[in-house]
Amino acid sequence: ITLNNCAVARGGRTILSGLSLSLRSGDLIWLTGENGIGKSSILRLAAGVLRPESGHVDYAQNGETVHASKIIALLAHDTGLHPALKVSEELKFWAGSLSKYASILENLGINELMSQNIKTLSAGQKRRVAIARLILSDKPIWLLDEPLSALDARGREMLLSYVKTHTENGGAAIIATHHAPSNIGENASVLKLSVPS
Which residues pair with 56 in a beta bridge? Predict the structure, then answer.
């Protein structure tokens, strides 16, 4: 993904301008800043969900221009799970066969939730299902909006481990969060947003 001199407006007001950013294979960007500063808007812009007021966003894979949906998996703050579906139905929609992902589903504690309707799950359980969907999407770029919210310590550690493995295997990720962890890895960088003075 390459963001070229982009401006983002929300509610008719420009909240970000002159935004340029490149995300390449192996990159991990921690996007930090206060509430309302524009972290989620940047992720939505990068995902192709939000159009820039000016500038442009380019997507490429193996040197070829592609559509954002071909390479990006977005884990939004609200998870975006369909409340009427069972967990198994939601995941099968994104991955088809789940057999090759058995160990991931077990690690995330999803197996015992498969027959439950999503609307009956707790916030933490929904977050784990959304993380499973992200992994099962098999997209090279992950965009995660406050992914650690609603997760317990084990869940947070597991998610960060999957992100680390993903980037080490040639994927890329942007994590929007309030705080960057102390150990972000060699190929990771922190981009802190602040209100202009």
Answer: 4
Non-local CB neighbours of 5 within 8 Å, separated by 6+ positions: 18, 19, 20, 54, 55
Helix-, strand-, coil-residue percentages of the chain, each rounded to 5: 35, 30, 40
**How much is the pTM?**
0.88
Residuewise pLDDT in 10s, the chain (197 residues): 999 999 998 888 888 899 999 999 999 998 888 887 788 999 999 999 999 999 999 999 998 999 999 999 999 888 889 999 999 999 998 887 788 888 889 989 899 999 999 999 998 899 999 999 999 988 999 999 988 888 888 888 888 899 999 999 999 999 998 766 656 566 667 767 655 43
